[in-house]
C-alpha cells in the first residue's frame, strides 16, 4: 500500500471534567462549558477552523440533544461544526481528516455524556441490530459477559486489572474514588462470568481537545503531541460472525496507525471490562514495558461518549507534560469491541 | 413520579414501535421461523451464514440466494449466565446467553439457553430450540434453546404381599413378647440373631431358639442426613449392634443421643414401645439408646 503524505497535526491542549458517579443536575451545556473554556484559555484561541463533537442522544433520551450543547461554544457568528453519534474519539478523527484539507489550522473536539440519567445497561441494547439481537433484550452486561466467556481469562488476572485500574483512578483527580475489590471470589456476579466489580462505573463527564497544525502547534505548546498515526477499523456487527476472543479490527487499526514502529511508553485503552484489556494488549502487540491506563482507564471513570476521547487526551497529556515521548490511545465503539480507533502520539 | 419537585420523570418511547422493512434475506429467515425452520444463507465461498445477512461480512459480496436449512440442534460455543433476568429478556427465570453453532451453519446464533440448572451449561453442549406456540416471524419465535435430551425418568412400582413364615415368624413372635430370639450352631460355636433355621457357615440345622438380652454394643454406624419415616429426626444414626452373647450384629436406629456423640463401642439397650402397643413387628423397638455404661473395646 502506498503511504499517503499527511499534514502534521498535533494535540496542543486537553481538559476533562472531574467526573461524577451521579447526576449533579447540570445541563449538558453546563457540563461542557468549563472544559471548553479551559482549552480556550490554555491555547488563547477563541475561534477554531473546525469544531466536532461526539455524544449519544439516547443517553439523555432527547433527540438532537447535541444541538443544545452548542450553547457552550460561542457559536455566533456561525462556526463550521459537525457531530458524530459516536464517542468523541471519532469526532477527533473527523477533525483530523478535516485538517488534512489544508485550509484551516486548528480544530476543537469535545465529547460528553451523562449515563446517570437512564439505565445504561438497557440503553446499550438500542445500538444492536433491530432484527436479530435487540428483540432478545440482549443488554450491555450480557454481551460483555459473552465476550468474557469467549476469552476465558484467568480470574486472578482480571481481578488484578480491576484492582490496578481502581488504584490508579484514586490517584487521578478526574477519575472516581472506587475502593479495592475486597471480597475476591465472593464478589457478587453481574452476568457470569462478569462480577459487579468488572463493570465500569456509571459516570457523567466531558472532555475537550484542541488540534493544531504546523507552526500554530509549536506556537501553542512547548511539547505538542503529534498524531503520527491514526486509523480505525470495524468488524461485523453480529456477535456470532466474529471470534470474540480476539479483535481483528483493533489489530488492523494498530498496524495501520503504526503502533509497532517504536516502543510504546504508555497505552490508554478503552477497556470498559477487564477482559477487553487482555484482548487489546494482544491486538496492539503491547509488551510488558508499556504502562497501561495509568489514568485508571474506563474502569475508574466511564463518561460514555467521552471515555474514548479521554484516552487520547490522557495519552497526549503525557507528551504535553514532557513525561513521555511516544504513547498510544485506543477508543472503541459498538458491542464487544466491534469498532476500534488507534492513535499513535509522539513528542 | 419522584417526590422531589426538581426531579422529573422522562420517558422516550415510540408508541406502537417502529415499522421496519426486513429486506429479502432477513424476511426469508423470519418467514422460515414462522414455519418452525431455521435457514442460513450460502455465500459465494460456500459458507452458511446463520442468521443470514444480505452481504458476506468476510468479502462484502452479496450472498448467493441459496437458503440452507440448518439445525434445529446446535452446539454452544460460549455462554454467560444471567441470574437476575431483566424485563425484556427472553425468560423470566435464570438462563444463559449463548453463541450456538447450529448444525450445518458456519457462524453462531446468539440466543438464550435455559437448562434446569446452571451446572448443565458448558461449551460444547448440544441444544435444541423450544418454539413458541404461535410463531409470527420474529427472532423470538424461538422462545429459547434447551439442552439435548440425554436422559429420561422411568417410574417403577409393583406391589407385593410378604408373609413371615418359618424362622422369621418365630423371631417376630419373640419380638411380640419383648425378647430377641437367636440360635446357636453347635458345630461352628456361633450365635445368630435373628433366629434362623440353618447355620449359614456349615449348613447345619439349628433346632432350638435361644433368648438374647436386649443390650449390646455399637460396632459401626452411619449418620444419615436424608429423612426417613422411621427415624426420629434428621440427622439420625443407624448402627450395627452386637447383642450381648451374639456373634452377628443387627442393624437398628440409635436414639436419645445427639448424632455426633454416637461412637463405636458404645453400650446400648433397646427402647420398646409400651406392652399394650406391641405387635409381631420390628416397630416394637423404637430404637436403641445409650445405657451409660463404659464403652467396650471392640476386638
From TrEMBL, chain A:
One of its GO terms (molecular function) is acyltransferase activity, transferring groups other than amino-acyl groups. This is Lipid-transfer protein. It comes from Nonomuraea turkmeniaca.
